[in-house]
Q: What sequence folds into this?
């Protein structure tokens, strides 16, 4: 395999938490109060402050990083952008100040990354930012102007979004130019891993997320206590683990919510492998001591290597939905749900769905390729037991109405093959790039001149 082929096969650094896919979670999330601003073409921050009569645009800085100013408004808008990215799920009121401190640290790192990229003559053009912003709007089924209005309503701004995009693109390009060319994985190493994977058929692999906190001999006890505090906040706050990873983790996976992807225990440091092996899906574990610090793990899923997983089956579904009028009480919702449930029971195969739906004014939506694994855990267990033509029990809420899914077909999953050499090599290269990137960022922090105000 040539070096170019290896590079093209590498699993690239996920561009950022700006992928902005809705995070599925069974928890009831709290939201930050909506701080709307007038829908104008002026990019006015929600917490505008005037600090002088001669220049109303002067804002008090929170930090100055090598002559680059980071303001309190920057912090507030980035926090609002993070909440927007999480579908409106934000920190509890008592956690806002702590999250702002984490956002400030993130902005400092981002500033250092952009500055270092510029010293390497790496810049991100306005056209590239426009293209990324347009792609982001498309993922939300919005136009760019609509996305900007939505950001302003959420308390953020186009400027904050484009700055985040610039930071991700600049640092990613810096890594590709300055670090990736010096990372190599030998064919013998790849072959050895393939053999170990083949020998591990029938064992499990894990989809993990991680929060990593660096520590040394001087601050180890303090960092351990901080990790314990974070775990307590995760368990108490009922917010997605990703939000905490983006605000607390010091690993390069911070930008993707701490996502480590699907990994096998043989690829993990032994302390993490031992912990993951004892975890159940949805469980948080830690603090786990590792070389250089502590880790907090969250297990989102697991599967058996080389075996067909029933949850990878793809389903053909029809969804029936009946909405509730505004102001519907819980009691009224239960009555309507009971009527809906009785009607759904009369469905005799998918061919009768539209006719039955018409009798109760229900909307019908088809989806012919849904993985069981991608549905909420409660629905996964139900659909695994359904036969074609059967419907789930009703589900929903007084605000969103009541729904039911009818199973119209199932394509069972096939046995998974051992990953190819290119995939393994890409994963190993990416891990080593991430380690060097962390080391580089630590150097930048150590050498930076940072003035707090």
A:
């Amino acid at each position: 395999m040539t070096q170019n082929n290896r590079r093209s096969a590498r699993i690239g650094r996920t561009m950022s938490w700006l992928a902005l896919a809705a995070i599925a979670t069974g928890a009831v999330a709290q939201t930050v109060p909506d701080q709307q601003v007038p829908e104008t073409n002026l990019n006015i921050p929600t917490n505008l402050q005037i600090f002088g009569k001669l220049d109303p645009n002067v804002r008090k800085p929170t930090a100055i990083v090598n002559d680059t100013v980071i303001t309190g408004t920057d912090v507030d808008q980035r926090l609002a952008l993070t909440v927007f990215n999480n579908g409106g799920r934000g920190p509890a009121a008592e956690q806002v100040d702590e999250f702002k401190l984490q956002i400030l640290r993130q902005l400092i790192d981002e500033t250092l990354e952009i500055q270092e990229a510029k010293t390497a003559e790496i810049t991100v053009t306005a056209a590239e930012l426009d293209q990324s912003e347009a792609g982001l709007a498309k993922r939300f089924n919005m136009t760019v102007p609509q996305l900007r209005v939505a950001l302003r309503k959420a308390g953020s701004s186009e400027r904050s979004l484009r700055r985040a995009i610039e930071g991700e693109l600049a640092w990613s390009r810096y890594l590709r130019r300055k670090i990736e060319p010096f990372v190599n994985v030998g064919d013998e190493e790849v072959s050895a891993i393939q053999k170990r994977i083949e020998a591990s058929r029938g064992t499990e692999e894990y989809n993990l997320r991680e929060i990593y906190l660096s520590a040394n001999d001087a601050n180890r006890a303090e960092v351990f206590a901080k990790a314990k505090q974070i775990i307590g906040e995760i368990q108490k706050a009922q917010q997605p683990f990703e939000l905490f990873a983006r605000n607390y983790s010091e690993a390069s996976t911070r930008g993707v919510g701490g996502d480590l992807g699907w990994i096998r225990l043989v690829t993990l440091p032994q302390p993490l492998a031992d912990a993951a092996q004892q975890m159940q899906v949805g469980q948080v574990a830690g603090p786990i001591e590792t070389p250089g610090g502590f880790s907090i793990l969250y297990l989102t899923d697991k599967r058996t290597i080389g075996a067909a997983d029933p949850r990878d089956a793809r389903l053909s579904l029809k969804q029936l939905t009946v909405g509730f009028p505004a102001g519907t009480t819980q009691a009224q919702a239960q009555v309507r749900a009971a009527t809906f449930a009785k009607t759904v029971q009369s469905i005799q195969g998918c061919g009768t769905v539209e006719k039955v739906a018409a009798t109760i004014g229900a909307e019908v939506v088809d989806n012919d390729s849904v993985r069981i694994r991608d549905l909420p855990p409660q629905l996964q267990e139900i659909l695994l037991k359904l036969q074609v033509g059967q419907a789930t029990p009703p589900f929903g809420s007084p605000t969103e109405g009541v729904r039911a899914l009818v199973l119209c077909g199932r394509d069972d999953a096939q046995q998974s093959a051992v990953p190819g050499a290119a995939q393994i090599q890409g994963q190993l290269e990416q891990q080593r790039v991430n380690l060097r990137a962390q080391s580089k960022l630590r150097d930048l922090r150590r050498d930076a001149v940072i003035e707090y105000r």
In short: Residues 1-44, 46-60 have pLDDT under 50 and may be disordered. The chain has 14 helices and eleven strands.
